[in-house]
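Need a sequence for this fold. Nothing fancy.
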């Protein structure tokens, strides 16, 4: 069975949340999912869902594009819940001009994760080098991290490998334009990568343009099987072990 290490079941894109929860619960090919918050509201919703459904775990945090009026003291308290396995997604997004404010939120949330012995899930949009600079100069994740939907850069990959940090592949690895991502996938050690759908976003080939579902993780796994030259069972084993090694609170 596979683990979807990053998805958003309580997204505004999904008009029928219960339907998609039921699809995951009924899918015998899916062991579990990590439902990722973007702000305090969606983080609390994620926890509520994980309490009611055993396949669901939560990652909670304030995404760099959702930092307005967010109380990180409240986040700290939410993070104590037993099914919260990480802080995230957090990080930097260069499409917005408030980078200094984003940095403050990012740094504070790294500190929260370290105090609570949790890994972090990183959103880094054209910002890998700035994120790495923050790690080097101020605070680094002491309990691990994963760069979600990693934007390919071989120089950045060397640093991540040296620190034992993970990268995660989503639907874009299946696209014809994914040459750099495929190169990264060939180079990253088998013990340092995860798979995710980022559902309901970034549907893989051959489903581009549709609402992405966790069941579509198989297309990402199949592409990585081809790149890594392993069979499906081995790919499930690798990615499941990696996910549980990083997110230690998962059963």
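Here you go.
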């Amino acid at each position: 069975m596979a683990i979807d290490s990053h998805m958003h079941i309580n997204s505004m894109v999904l008009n029928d949340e219960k339907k998609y929860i039921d699809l995951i619960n009924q899918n015998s090919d899916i062991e579990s999912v990590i439902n990722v918050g973007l702000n305090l509201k969606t983080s609390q919703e994620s926890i509520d869902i994980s309490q009611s459904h055993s396949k669901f775990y939560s990652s909670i945090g304030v995404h760099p594009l959702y930092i307005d009026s967010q109380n990180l003291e409240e986040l700290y308290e939410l993070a104590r819940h037993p099914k919260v396995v990480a802080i995230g997604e957090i990080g930097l997004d260069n499409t917005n001009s408030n980078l200094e404010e984003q940095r403050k939120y990012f740094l504070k949330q790294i500190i929260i994760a370290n105090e609570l012995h949790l890994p972090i899930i990183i959103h880094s949009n054209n910002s890998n080098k700035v994120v790495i600079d923050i790690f080097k100069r101020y605070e680094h994740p002491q309990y691990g991290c994963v760069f979600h939907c990693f934007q390919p850069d071989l120089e950045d990959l060397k640093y991540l490998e040296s620190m034992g940090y993970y990268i995660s592949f989503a639907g874009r690895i299946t696209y014809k334009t994914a040459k750099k991502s495929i190169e990264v996938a060939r180079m990253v050690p088998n013990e340092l990568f995860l798979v995710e759908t980022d559902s309901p976003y970034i549907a893989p080939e051959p489903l581009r343009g549709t609402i992405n579902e966790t069941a579509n993780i198989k297309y990402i796994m199949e592409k990585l099987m081809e790149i890594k030259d392993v069979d499906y069972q081995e790919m499930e084993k690798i990615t499941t072990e990696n996910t549980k090694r990083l997110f230690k609170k998962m059963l």
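For context: Residues 102 and 109 are 11 Å apart (CA to CA).
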